[in-house]
Amino acid sequence: MTSEVNVMHEFTPSFKNLNFKYQTKEYVHNSTMNMFDYYADKKKKAFFMLDYFSGKIGKDEEMNIMFENGEYATQSQIEERKKQYAKYIENSNIYKMVISFPEGYLEENVDIKEFEKALAKDIIPMFLKKCGFQDMNKMSYQFSLHTNTDNLHFHLSFAEKEPNYKKFSKDKELQYRFAGELSQEELTFLKNEIQHYIKKEKIYTPLLIATNKELDNLKKYFNPKDRNFLLNNKEDILLEDKIISLGKLLDEKNLIKNNKIKFNSIKDKKIKQLTKEIKNYLFKSNNEEFKLDYKEFKESLEKINQYFIDISKNNHTEIVDTSLIDRKEKYFDNYVLNAIVNHASYRYKNPKISEEEMIQNIVYQNYRRNKNQSRSTILMNCLSSLSNKNKFKNHYRINQAVKNINDELEDAEKEFDKLFKIDEKDAYL
Asked: Is pTM, for the whole model, over 0.90?
């Protein structure tokens, strides 16, 4: 099977890394200078209908080469860059790549000019990070789209302006990358990112929208504003006991900062273990609605995972990018754990139950059993009978209400809002 994205690469060694193919500094220098002339050759330039109708063809100063800023370079800018590379090659390898596509593939699937900007501003920087280069301001790169063959293809090259490479994250000092060969993993990453850009609007974006919607739905089960708040099931004595025990531990350790607790900041092993026990207990609960919603969320994540698997298969690799799925699962996990510790703390410190809350819960619990009755009818039935039998029944209902009362007080809601707002920005990417 032919890949939809194909990548070939080579490199020109620095003056310090001369090899059998590049044996002299002069040869390295000439090869590097010729590279810019070849990239910028107007005979190979891609022209578009907009260029034609705007009268731009043959009149512009822009050459067929794009720099890091996503803009076409002028001849004078290219000459300046040649001077820069004459210095870079003293220490840096010049990495060269050809990125090609099947005939018609690129034209049929993307706006090519927008794709070029994405390459310059997003895809290439991510690729360079993958290759171990740390600071994009210390990198120089350029590319050119050539149309002189049946299939469109890009020529890409890059170099280090100064030492900017870490082979291992534990390395303390930056150095020049000595190895000229790029690994299969690095090349696959580039191919996958390019294909992801091409396919994302048609396939990935709808999947992401659906997943984010399901994530929002799941979060409601852990938000005290909502009636389906899982932590509010006071009929479950074991759950209640765990929550109160956790609240007591949190109070003893004085872990509340600015009226909130962040689970990831907790060091106490006993507290962390109990919090996770509560989470696992909730996820095994008999709440059918939650089980169904959680199942749909996991299925959506699996569809996104399959999307990335298909991209990898197309590029003949088993390397699959799971970062997005991992990030979403981690976000939801942290959301739940944060909700548990903050609810436990609140419940332990606010044990009092108001008459209004008791009545409200009586109405709610009865309404769930018989939705044909109005709120007022339920109250009358629960509280107005004078018979001893019903008095006992009403007394039991009130006691049950005390056990099942929700803690959705305004102050608690505000604190929960504060807690989770700071985590929202990365949740839906």
From this structure: no
Same-domain check for residues 222 and 334: yes
Q: For the chain, what is the domain count?
A: 3
Domain presence at residue 413: no
Q: Does residue 416 lie in a domain region?
A: no
Q: Which residues form the domain of 234? A: 203-350
Domain end residue (candidates: 286, 319, 350)? 350
Q: Same domain for 223 and 117?
A: no
Same-domain pairing of 366 and 344: no
3-state secondary structure the chain: CCCCCEEEEEEECCHHHCCCCCCCHHHHHHHHHHHHHHHCCHHHCCCCHHHHHCCCCCCCCEEEEECCCCCEEEHHHHHHHHHHHHHHCCCCCEEEEEEECCCCHHHHHCCHHHHHHHHHHHHHHHHHHHCCECCHHHEEEEEEEECCCCCCEEEEEEEECCCCECCCCCCCCCECCCCCCCCHHHHHHHHHHHHHHHHHHHHHHHHHHHHHHHHHHHHHHHCCCCCCCHHHCCCCHHHHHHHHHHHHHHHHHCCCECCECCHHHCCCHHHHHHHHHHHHHHHCCCCHHHHHHHHHHHHHHHHHHHHHHHHHHHCCCCCCCCHHHHHHHHHHHHHHHHHHHHHHHHHHHCCCCCHHHHHHHHHHHHHHHCCCCCHHHHHHHHHCCCCHHHHHHHHHHHHHHHHHCCCCCHHHHHHHHHHHHCCCCCCCC
Ranges of residues in the chain whose predicted pLDDT is under 70: 1-2, 43-61, 234, 255-259, 351-429
Which pLDDT tens digit goes with each residue over 143-192?
Answer: 999 987 778 899 999 999 999 999 887 888 999 999 999 999 999 999 99
